[in-house]
Amino acid sequence: MRPQLADIDLKLLRVFCTIVEAGGFTPAQTRLNLSQSRISSLVTDLEARLGMRLCQRGRVGFRLTDKGRIVYEAAQRLFARLSDFNAEVGSLRGAMWGELNIGIVDSTSTNPDCRLVEAIRVFKELAPDVTLRLQIAGPHDLERAVLDGRLQAAIGAFHHHVAGLSYALLFQEHQTLYCGRGHPLFGRSDRGLTVADIETAAFADRGYMEGARRRLPFAPKAATTTDYMEALAMLVLSGHYVAYLPAHYAAAWVAKGEMRPLLANKLSFNSAFEVVKRRGAMTTAVLHTFLEALEAAHPRATRSGRRSTVEA
What we know:
The protein is of the alpha/beta class. It folds into three domains: 7-73, Winged helix-like DNA-binding domain superfamily/Winged helix DNA-binding domain (Arc Repressor Mutant, subunit A, Orthogonal Bundle), CATH 1.10.10.10; 81-171 and 272-303, 3-Layer(aba) Sandwich (D-Maltodextrin-Binding Protein, domain 2), CATH 3.40.190.10; 172-270, D-Maltodextrin-Binding Protein, domain 2, CATH 3.40.190. It is 42% helix and 21% strand. The protein is built from twelve helices and eleven strands. The strands form three sheets. Strands 3, 4, 5, 6, 9, 10 and 11 form a seven-stranded mixed β-sheet that branches. A two-stranded antiparallel sheet has the order 1-2. The protein has a two-stranded parallel ribbon with strand order 7-8. A hairpin with a 6-residue loop joins strand 1 (55-56) and strand 2 (63-64). Helix 1 crosses helix 2, helix 1 (7-22) packs across helix 3 and helix 5 (116-126) crosses helix 11 (285-297). It is globular, with a radius of gyration of 23 Å.
């Protein structure tokens, strides 16, 4: 590719990113409204302009090459910068438009203390022409995406604060240890249950809490790990694992008798949910408006005195 990007290069890169995000040529057809042969031709054109193979396709299925993965990540950063540029230019004209990319961890919609829906409602009333994209990922992935500009902000429980990011408290999430129906501990009352009994059970851990486990109220031995609450819930429901889940998320299964908490008075804890953005990055009017709506929707975090300022 020539040092200076042409319009065609940007178009081809957008097609390539859509294919990667869809998981292959066939699922990308609907998103792009193009035939599979046309999509293949466009990717071939991009590979020729870049002078490298980006992906493998055919009978083996779709798979990125190492260089293709690097190109995809670089393209995501490029499009994030273009989005910031559009937002800044729009603010100079007294208007807010462009894109705002926000990330959040999974399984938060049932938490009554998470007021993101309210913040989005207010934001869209103030900035109706802005395209809001909400992405779900694990905490580590969210932090990386904010650092490299693919996301302007993210919300989650971040157990290790990363240099280069600023964090601000939004709300707390109550975490309780659960087992599922069929587990040996399920039928035992809390009176006859000890922490030592629970420590012998197969524990499904959250991968992103590595190094923060010392803050847990007991010393579990991880039998498996995952970054997603839905996966943890499935493991618990199998009857073979115990795991921490947000109390609001597990409530429906508890009500149906499919899960039960274990020594909730002793082993429960709270996770601080924070909004994170890149430290020192220029805050556009669009992002400023969203952060203000988010803070206004979570007034208890401000009143608690535990909020650390996110530059807005």
